[in-house]
Amino acid sequence: LRLLPRQRYLRAERAEVSALERKRNVLCCLITRILKVEKQLHIDNLVFRVIDACQKGELGPGLQFLSFSCHSVDVLSCVLHLLNQGYLRRQEERPHVLEY
Predict the structure, then answer these.
(1) What is the tens place of the pLDDT at every residue in 39-65?
(2) How many domains does the chain have?
(3) Which of 31, 36, 35 shows the shortest CA–CA distance to 53?
(4) Which residues pair with 55 in a beta bridge?
(5) For the chain, where are the alpha helices, taking DSSP H only?
(6) Domain range for residue 40?
(7) In this structure, is residue 94 part of a structural domain?
(8) Can you give the pTM of this predicted structure?
C-alpha cells in the first residue's frame, strides 16, 4: 500500500469553480440592479450596459473591483439563469424586451 500526495489540480479546479460562481453572482446582481432602475430594457442594451459597467468597474457599492472582465456569453447565461429563477420576465408581445 502506497499513499499518494494530494493532487494539486483538484485544489486549482475548486478555486476556478469558486471564482466562476462569484463572477456569476456579481453579474446577476448587476443585471438585477440595472433592470430595477430601468424597469424594462431590450436584451441587447442590457448586455451592453452590463459589459460597460464591468469594464469601467462600476459594479456597485461593496464590490471593490478595478475592472471585471465579462463577455456577452457570460451576461446572456446569467440572464437565462434569472429568467429560469423567475426574477426576470420577457414581454409576451416583444420577447426581446426584459422586465424586472
Answers:
(1) 999 999 999 999 988 887 766 665 555
(2) 1
(3) 31
(4) none
(5) 8-38, 43-56, 72-85
(6) 7-99
(7) yes
(8) 0.75
